[in-house]
Every structure is written in structure tokens, then in C-alpha cells.
Design brief:
Elements (H helix, E strand, L loop, with lengths): L12 H7 L2 H12 L7 E5 L7 H5 L4 E6 L2 H11 L6 E3 L12 E7 L8 H11 E12 L1 H4 L17 H8 L5 E9 L9 H4 L6 H14 L3 H12 L10 E4 L8 E7 L5
Parallel strand pairs: 1-2, 1-4, 2-3, 4-5
Antiparallel strand pairs: 5-8, 6-7, 6-8
Amino acid sequence: MSEVRFDSLGYDPTLLRRRSPWWGVHAARYHDAVQYVAGCRVLDVACGTGYGLPVLKSRARLVVGVDLEFEAASKALALSGTDDGEVIVADGSELPFMDGSFEVVTSFETLEHLKNRKEFLSEVRRVLIASGLCIISTPNANYTRPIDGKPRNPHHIYEYTPEELTAELNRYFADIDLFGQVLDSRFVISPFIDDQERLSHTIRTQARLLLWRAFNKMPAVVRDELSQAVWGHPLFPGEADYQFTHETVEVAPVLHALCQKIKSK
């Protein structure tokens, strides 16, 4: 697949990766999803500021973004370059679309924020065609380790184990294919504090972490050049530096599910 760039909108993935360690981990989900959307009508629920919409549009026939926040939806509309009506303000549990309006629905890092998860999943199922596909990601409770069922992240309502997520999704979809999203092994040091705290305490690993933190204090171009020279990759991972595998479901930080509305043949 050719690289998707948005220089005309000032939307360059290389620059975004340099600015934020979160770019790669979020964008990777859209780049993985794009293989399933060719020629399809796609709904992205909780699209945020819309950074994933141009990725989906590179293959899809139609992409509609939905977000509950007016400011986020406005930014998404400006960023995606879509016509009026292709990014709207709406609640994911009350989607303003007719039954069977879309062939694919994507919604990444949404489920864990919701109290009305059942209503949300029911609405996603409703707006899909009979053979439609829903692609969802959410944190893995095996990794995040909620305390007595309460997520450590104060913005999260509930986090699922792989078994819990499969059971929940099976109430609404016939086929569930679950993957773990993990950072490529070339990146020994993740850019996230939670991951860094889990690193081994060997002298070699801790020395590498100290060097990573020293690089991280430098200007973006400089830190990437140094990281490239020392480790063979930029300091922050990009969208191509994450993998989605069945083997990592139990231990991955994030669960990524492909949900078929009806049983696949």
C-alpha cells in the first residue's frame, strides 16, 4: 500500500509522529483497517479531530465521521476536506442513520469510555448491512490491570479482558476475530511511561532508557537523527511500527477486534 500523505492540508504523518508519541499507536489502527474498506461506505464513530478520515478515504467510496464533541467534529471536517454532512455531531448510542447504511464501521478507543456500551454496540450493528464489518479497539485489561474492576485511567469506565470483550461482542456480532496491537520489537523503549515502568531492571535496559529520555529532551529533528544513528529507527514509533497479531492477544496493551455481523462462510 502506498504511503498516505496530506501535505496540502499541512497533515504530514512524519511531522505528526515527531510531535506526539500517540500519533503512531492511533494511526496504526486506521492503516490496518484500510485494507477492509475498499469501495465501501464507512462510518467512523468517535472520529475525534479526524486524523483517520483521510486514511480511510484513500480506499473507501464514502467516509462519514461522527463525534459527540462539536469542536472535534469541526476540526475533523476542516482536516478531512469533505463536503458538508460527511462529519457530523452525534451520539454513538443514537446514530442518525437508517438501518444498513454502511458496509464498515470503525471505532477506536471508544468502548472503554462508555457507560451505555450495550446501546452503542447495538447501534453499530443496526447501521451495518447484513454482511457488514465492525472494527473496534479498546485497552486490554490483562495489560492495564484495573483495580477491583476500576480502570487506573480516570477517563475510562470499563476495560475488558480478551475473554470479556469476545463475550460482549458476541452478543451483537456472529464472528469475532481478535488481535493484539503491539509495538514492533525493534523499539525496545516504548514512548509511554506505563510501558517504560514495565521494562526489565538490567543495567543494559535501564541505560538504554536513560539515553532515550535524554534524546527525548532534544529538538524533534535532532532526537530522530540520533535515535536513527544509534538504534536504526526514529525515537517515536510511526503508524507502520505496530503489529496486529493473534499470538499477542493475552498480553498486548490494546485489543483490536474484527466483528462480522453475520457468520462468514
